[in-house]
């Protein structure tokens, strides 16, 4: 009888281990699918709407390439801009909706994807005219998708002089990063006005301090949902 119970216990453990293996495999395959889907979607968007420029063709210093917003808006009318950070894989359209939940789980084609999109805070003006404009994006901790590369900036791996290029239908902007730090999800101060952003930085950056009027704030998770990477960048006009 004792041997019979031991067999039951062993079989039960085996069943549990198989269930754990199958569930882990499912989660891995599911995440892999969403990663590949997200990557392909953005590659197709870039191929359709991004036009590289030769140095001689650049009319302004804030142009590295041009964005065909007409084509982009035919794909998704929620598009309000494009973000590009040299030295990173961050090269994405920016969308905005009346809520901040939809694009947490939908890609640029409005298809369900747990990696979401890069999106502007719903309370901001879409023309980047606010004193503090906030952009959100996921950190998938691998594969450099969405805002994952913000960790490279936080860790100091990309130097102390970094620009963020923002393209819009009306005008392009260059923002200089001046502050980066970790915050908790309950800390809403990074989403307000630039009061103590300079004092909070955990890295020193080279930037033009003469006439900062507009701040761009980027927000993503750090290693888990208990911390967020906050990056502030300034534009002088």
CATH architecture type of the domain at 78-235: Beta Barrel
Count of individual beta strands: 10
Beta-strand fraction estimate: 15-25%
pLDDT < 50 runs, ≥5 residues: none
Radius of gyration: 22 Å
Count of runs of 4 or more consecutive helical residues: 4
SSE pattern, N- to C-terminal: HEEHEEEEHEEHEE
For the largest sheet, list the strands in their spatial order: 3-4-5-6-9-10-8-7
Question: Could you give me the name of the CATH homologous superfamily of the domain at 78-235?
Answer: Sortase
How can the largest sheet be summarized?
A: 8 strands, mixed, barrel
CATH fold assignment of the domain at 78-235: Sortase, Chain: A
Class from secondary-structure proportions: alpha+beta
Q: For the record, what CATH class of the domain at 78-235 applies?
A: Mainly Beta
Structural commentary:
The structure is a single chain. This protein has 237 residues and is an alpha+beta fold. It has a domain at 78-235: Sortase (Sortase, Chain: A, Beta Barrel). The chain is 27% helix and 24% strand. It has four helices and ten strands; from the N terminus they run αββαββββαββαββ. It has helices spanning 2-49, 69-75, 150-154, 197-200; strands spanning 50-52, 65-67, 79-84, 91-95, 118-120, 132-136, 163-167, 172-183, 214-221, 228-235. An eight-stranded mixed barrel has the order 3-4-5-6-9-10-8-7. It has a two-stranded antiparallel ribbon with strand order 1-2. Strand 3 (79-84) and strand 4 (91-95) form a beta hairpin. The mean pLDDT is 84.
């Amino acid at each position: 009888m004792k041997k019979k119970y031991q067999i039951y216990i062993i079989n039960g453990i085996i069943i549990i281990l198989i269930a754990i293996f199958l569930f882990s495999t499912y989660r891995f395959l599911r995440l892999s699918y969403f990663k590949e889907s997200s990557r392909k979607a953005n590659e197709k968007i870039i191929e359709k709407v991004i036009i590289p420029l030769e140095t001689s063709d650049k009319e302004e210093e804030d142009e590295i390439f041009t964005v065909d917003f007409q084509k982009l808006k035919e794909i998704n009318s929620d598009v309000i801009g494009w973000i590009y950070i040299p030295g990173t894989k961050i090269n994405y359209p920016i969308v905005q909706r009346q809520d901040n939940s939809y694009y947490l789980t939908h890609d640029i084609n409005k298809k369900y994807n747990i990696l979401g999109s890069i999106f502007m805070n719903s309370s901001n003006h879409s023309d980047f005219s606010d004193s503090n404009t906030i952009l959100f994006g996921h950190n998938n901790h691998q594969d450099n998708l969405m805002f994952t590369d913000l960790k490279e900036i936080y860790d100091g791996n990309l130097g102390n002089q970094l620009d963020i290029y923002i393209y819009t239908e009306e005008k392009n902007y260059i923002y200089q990063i001046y502050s980066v730090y970790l915050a908790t999800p309950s800390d809403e101060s990074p989403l307000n006005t630039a009061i103590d952003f300079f004092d909070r930085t955990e890295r020193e950056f080279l930037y033009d301090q003469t006439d900062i009027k507009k701040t761009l704030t980027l927000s993503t998770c750090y290693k888990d949902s208990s911390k967020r990477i906050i990056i502030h960048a300034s534009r002088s006009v």
